[in-house]
Amino acid sequence: MMMNETVPLSTTMLPHYESPLPALYEPQAQPPKPRLMFKMPRVVPDQKGKFESDELFRRLARETEQVRYTGYRDRPSEERRQKFQSQCRDGYTEIAFINTGTNLQLSFTPAPGGYSADVDFNKEPGKVHIKSHFIMNGVCVRWKGYLDLERLDGVGCLEYDEDSARIEDAILREELDKYKAKLREFEDKQRPFKVNMHQAPNEVFRMFDPMI
User: Fold this and answer.
1) Residue-wise pLDDT tens digits, 116-144
2) How many CB atoms lie within 10 A of CB 15?
3) Any residues with CB less than 8 A from the CB of 133 and at least 6 apart, and which?
4) How many of the other CB atoms lie within 10 Å of CB of 69?
5) Tens digit of pLDDT for each residue in 30-68?
6) Whole-model pTM above 0.85?
7) What's CA 138's distance to the chain center, in Å?
8) H helix runs in the chain, sequence order
9) The CATH classification of domain 47-160, taken from the options 3.20.20.10, 3.40.630.10, 1.10.940.10, 2.40.250.10
């Protein structure tokens, strides 16, 4: 044999070994993964209780709370006045409670060709009275107040919006009922799998010990 000569090697594969005993760990049927979707509620269960007990709401509910228009703060005063009135006509504006530093974006349904019924420029000369309904921290509230058209500041407060709260409470109860029904349906589907999982180990050991 010459040096560096390649020698062929036999690489016979061993036959696959099959155990005569049954497998101890047969894969069990897996239950389907849960697909419970719960829509996050917009309001808390006890809206009125939170409005009356929460310190922030209690402060913002005072009618002496001063407010200020916060839009376009980098623009000249006259342009800001025009922007403010334009926003009121379009159905929204931004304000802040000065003492607490709470910023809000008020919105109201604009009327075709004019201002919303929630925006009143005629109640007092030089002022605009505004009402706006919205949800804050899970509570239906109503902002009510006025702003001076020259200084762009004024007075306002939050009120508990009982009518809107009643509507949102009904939606919340409906969503909870749907979720509970889906949960019961899911648990009913899971029950057969749980029974099979508990029975499987006994079936395996019974193969080796008929007394089980």
Assistant:
1) 889 999 999 999 999 999 999 999 999 99
2) 6
3) 108, 140, 141, 142, 161, 164
4) 22
5) 555 555 565 678 999 999 999 999 999 999 998 777 999
6) no
7) 10
8) 47-53, 55-60, 77-90, 162-206
9) 2.40.250.10
